[in-house]
Fold:
Amino acid sequence: MEIEKLIKELDFKAVRSSGAGGQNVNKVSSKVVLSFDLNKSEVFSTDEKLLLEIKLAPRLTSENILMLQCDEDRSQLKNKSIIIKRFLQIIEQGLKIPKPRKQTKIPKSAIRKRIKDKKNTSEIKKNRRRPEL
Structure:
């Protein structure tokens, strides 16, 4: 994955942050909104795009655009760097293919122990019963 090319494909928009903050909130656009069009991306192959489309389905819009926003800091530059890191993590997790699970065989000693324990508990319960005359 070529990070520099990927970052060049991102679209950033600065928006006014919501919430408390006094006069500064009304003047400064510190909130950053990132949008990434998965269909127009040239960094990923068709297989990778399909994998990302499946894994990031809840986060994508109907046009396969990933939208992220950040207003954690008062600085627009810091918010931009935070959102780029977050975006790269999301893409990295989306491209990760899980290892197939290897089924393991249950050891014979474990099977024997389980059956022995079952017999033991059944004997204990039998001994609790009233004796037959």
